[in-house]
Amino acid sequence: MSEPAIHPELASLRASIDNIDAALIHMLAERFRCTRAVGALKAREKLPPADPAREARQIARLRALAKDADLDPDFAEKFLNFIVKEVIRHHEIARDTAIPDTASERR
Amino acid sequence: MSEPAIHPELASLRASIDNIDAALIHMLAERFRCTRAVGALKAREKLPPADPAREARQIARLRALAKDADLDPDFAEKFLNFIVKEVIRHHEIARDTAIPDTASERR
Q1: FRET partner for A36 with CA separation of 20 to 30 A, picked from A94, B3, B38, B44?
Q2: Chain A within 8 Å of B84 (Cβ-Cβ)?
Q3: How many percent of chain A have pLDDT more than 90?
Q4: Chain B touched by A15 (CB under 8 Å)
Q5: Domain residue spans of chain B
Q6: Chains A, B: CB contacts under 8 A, how many?
Q7: Which own/partner pairs from B47-54 qualify as long-range (CB within 8 Å, at least 24 positions apart)?
């Protein structure tokens, strides 16, 4: 069975959306690689897990970037919160499955 | 006042995260430009606003891309839903503020 005919302008816009979505997925995958490395570094070096000053700077910066790109700054902040929720989930999983460096066997 | 000393590896990872976040914000801005154009096209050409088959294909594709990139496919699906919620909000705003082409004056 063939696909129903699709408006060529719609097909073109959808092709752009699909390319952008692939880029977003890969950027998100790379971001989570970075935050996992941050989590491991903070655990290893006994650094404080949260840094409210850094988080406030990130929000302010993303809101400004969004404004320049004609994106709703409130949406940009909601987006960062959405990502951070997933980062916290990763850190919790890492903590719950961590094997201490000094352990001589799994436990 | 100077910033407190920061672990160099943490500073490096944060620089990567900041670059990725800027890329994400700009990709999102471009994605919403595309979905706004889709909304305008569908309104102009009287095309159906929703396309469940297209949406199912998008979810399946993003889940597969996420898996290949070592990203949780459930997160990728949640992410698409998060974006789509914003797209719907844009379409509602556009609908509520639309001025019909045939109107001779604002109303």
Answers
A1: B3
A2: no
A3: 70
A4: no
A5: 8-97
A6: 122
A7: B47/A7, B47/A10, B49/B91, B54/A14
What pLDDT score was predicted for residue B92?
85
Best CATH choice for the domain A8-97 from the list 1.10.533.10, 1.20.59.10, 3.10.560.10, 1.10.10.10: 1.20.59.10
Nearest to A13 among B22, B24, B37 (CB): B37
The helix or strand, by DSSP H or E, that contains position B44, with its residue range, turns out to be helix B8-44
Lowest mean pLDDT among A43-57, B56-70, B91-105: B91-105
Contacts with A66 from chain B: Cβ below 8 Å: 25, 29
* Stretch A79-84: mean pLDDT: 95
**Alpha-carbon span B35 to B78, nearest angstrom:** 18
The helix or strand, by DSSP H or E, that contains position B78, with its residue range, turns out to be: helix B73-97
Contact B26 A75 (CB under 8 A): no
Give B2's pLDDT tier (boundaries 50, 70, 90): low
| Complex ipTM value | 0.87
Q: What is the pLDDT of residues B17-59, one digit of tens each?
A: 999 999 999 999 999 999 999 999 999 999 988 889 999 999 9
State how far residue B92 is from chain A, nearest Cα, in angstroms.
15
